Amino acid sequence: MNISEEKWSIQQSQVPPSPHHPHSVMSPQMSGMPMQPFPYDGPAAQGQLHSQIYVPIATQTPSTPRPTSSPSNTNTSNPASDRKVIDNRPTFTTTSFHTTPFQAGAVRKRRTDTLGFSQDVGPFFSPTQQHHNIYSTDRTLSYKLRINSKVDRGFFLADNDWTCYRRNYFQISSAFSILSTTHHTMNESDIPCLLEVDGQFHNISQFLLGITARVSNSDKKIELVQHTPKRDKGPQMVPVPKPIRPGGNLNLSSVGSNSNIVTFERIQFKTATANNGKRRAAQQYYVVMVDLYAQTENGEQIRVATSTSAPLVVRGRSPGHYADNHDRYNPMSMNPAFPNDRHMGFPHPQGPGGAPIMTQDFGGASFPGPYNQYPPFPGFPPVNGGPMRNDALLMMPNGQAPQFHPQHPHQQYMVQGISEGENPNPDMYSNANMDSNVVNNSHNQKMHDIHMEGVTTASAPHSAFSNFESLQIQTPGTGPNAAPEYEGFHMYHNDNHPTSNTSAHEGYNSDNEHHSNGLNHMNGRQTRQDSSSEHNNSSQINGDKSGHDSKITNGNNNNTNYRIGKTENTDKL
DNA sequence: TTCGACACAAATAT
DNA sequence: GATATTTGTGTCGA
User: Fold this and answer.
1) Which domain of life, per UniProt (predicted)?
2) Each residue's pLDDT tens digit, A345-369
3) Which domains does chain A have, with CATH numbers?
4) Which of A360, A448, A463, A520 could form a disulfide linkage to A433, CB 3.0–4.6 angstroms apart?
């Protein structure tokens, strides 16, 4: 048994293992599977032609081991791993622990996995919604934007909802790619793009990427705050859009500079969702929106693309409060054998090894559950929240019947790993559940990632995400780029430091971890950012102190500040 | 019930 | 192994 497995066994001893919490062994990528170029015949976009998509060949770098969500991580050479195993022992010595009624199951969580990498996963992101057309400077090529995002920490699955605590940090890393419709290469440092807004073409001087939050299925903005390491003693800021270059690959630990990856660290929701844990009250959800802006030569910043997270629950109180209060009304889901898994009563769709499977689109069928404020979803989100990347689908038989969950009307977020440009297998897009819509041989042109990385998919106009909430976002002017994508949720951090990838939820692939956050133990620790990452981002955190007091009173800071003059066709910063 | 503040202690970095 | 830093979260009052 390797170190991770040892940890795994410790945790599993606390909570009955759930068959719905498969391990990351399902994920070849998580095991460092090299990625190869593959031909992809999916439709690029309306009026565009299918093409071969090149994806990065991810090489395993011993010096920078890639994180894995699998408990069967075999790397035991890292001294830190040994320490972490020790640290993983259940801790029963804290004062707070003894004051709680949850001692029996208490298992302290580690902040990082055995490699110092994040094993955690977070809420999935929707297909990229492109709001404006982007063209080459000579206007002969239409480009498509794709945003890849991942949540590195802070979230766990509770009741199949992606959940976090308002007071806890989460972190979002994003990158984006520009897809060309023809064989075309360009200098990554250049942005030879034209932005079309209301029929007018503007040169794009740079791109920026920002995050905001709002109430799911509503336009109500939710304030995000960003802290310094000083936390309460330091200033609180609103995460502001940061310059970003295309071509970032969140799966790579680091390739040169990170100017093509933006990370927002120490982010918190200013407010919690309503009705957390209440019975017979509809759970409110938030979503995080990752917005890509194009700055024109005159300095105008226009939102050109958006990717939206899965619905999120933000708990406002300490985890202990929810330990015995997680039975939000759901008369069908509770299974007394698994008091912490209210979905044990349902047969989650699973593939070999118990991994949840990707299910198909429901074709617009209305969601049958009580919370139908969300569009239909094709099945359960990953209960484990673990390494369920879309590549795991490759190991799953086709045609598994989707399952509804009456309590979770929102989209199933099982394809978090479909980080555009990271999955080598085209089958995932031509799965029996989606293929008819994805593969479109009417397209003859080839689509390439301009940067030849980070892109694997073309559009899936009627994909399993076609009902995803974010697709409700008005995207006028999208034109040929309107087709939905499968956004990637990436497991790997983006910078050099092997420990830089935080891991709030290495146990998302663990039953115990799943339940432990606020359910079975107190003082659960989640991963912190390492110092190198701290330094990397200190400037961005501290560099924008002006105008920000310790308290943020503008509940709509982000959008108020950065979406001035938004219209149907223009969404400017 | 939520939120802000304070405090404690664990996890992790150095 | 000691120390410093970071962060999860218990607690309390508003």
Assistant:
1) Eukaryota
2) 222 333 333 322 222 222 222 222 2
3) 3-562 (2.60.40.1390)
4) A360
